[in-house]
Design goal:
Layout: E1 2-4, E2 12-14, H1 17-20, H2 26-39, H3 99-115, E3 119-122, H4 132-141, E4 147-151, H5 156-161, E5 168-172, H6 178-183, E6 187-190, H7 191-201
Parallel strand pairs: 3-6, 4-5, 4-6
Antiparallel strand pairs: 1-2
């Protein structure tokens, strides 16, 4: 499969059909994206129920004769300082996704982006200084306002330069995931990053 080079570079880049010419399986991709987002949830919320709150082991007053309501413990949920009736407990949101499922989902997303002409292959995309103006100019040269920029390795200057740009993000190939690919309006990929992607997902 051939992708047209952009950003002043003429010609095409031949890429692997295994990574960029696969069927878009919507159900599988939805499952993989959902599992990826779920795995990022902390699941650490915790509250104390009536058995976990300290104290309350003695009946506060006798059952009858006081004129007050019956009470068995001062740690009842209806008492101030008591436990929560339906206390939250730590939980794991992780969903099992096989390696093959993840691979096919990534191939499907990349292929659909290529079919819709939303992948912009450039020779290189870097920032010599962390200046937002420079990166905005480069994106305008490609006719883009919103994009996910994928580079071979992490670039601190590039990361700092895009922080003030709306819906513009930078990822290296190692950090690329189904959630940010699906969310991206357009994807700008360098030639070096494209070769790495083919090695990973091709």
């Amino acid at each position: 499969m051939d992708l047209q080079m952009k950003g002043g570079s003429s010609g095409t880049l031949t890429v692997s059909d295994a990574a960029f010419d696969k069927e878009f399986n919507e159900g599988l991709i939805h499952q993989v994206v959902t599992a990826y987002l779920a795995a990022g949830r902390a699941g650490t919320k915790a509250q104390k129920n009536r058995s976990a709150v300290r104290g309350g082991g003695v009946k506060p007053w006798r059952q009858k004769g006081t004129g007050r309501a019956r009470a068995g413990t001062i740690r009842s949920p209806i008492w101030r300082g008591g436990g929560r009736a339906f206390a939250a407990s730590p939980r794991n949101y992780e969903q099992k996704v096989n390696r093959k499922m993840y691979r096919v989902a990534m191939q499907g997303i990349l292929s659909e982006l290529a079919r819709q002409d939303r992948i912009y292959v450039v020779e290189e995309f870097k920032a010599d200084t962390p200046k937002t103006r420079d990166i905005a100019g480069k994106l305008n040269g490609l006719g883009l306002e919103q994009a996910l920029i994928v580079t071979e390795d992490a670039d601190d200057n590039l990361f700092l330069a895009v922080r003030n740009l709306y819906r513009v993000e930078v990822e290296d190939v190692a950090g690329l995931n189904p959630a940010n690919l699906v969310d991206a309006e357009n994807v700008v990929i360098t030639v070096a990053a494209m070769k790495k992607i083919e090695e990973l997902w091709g």
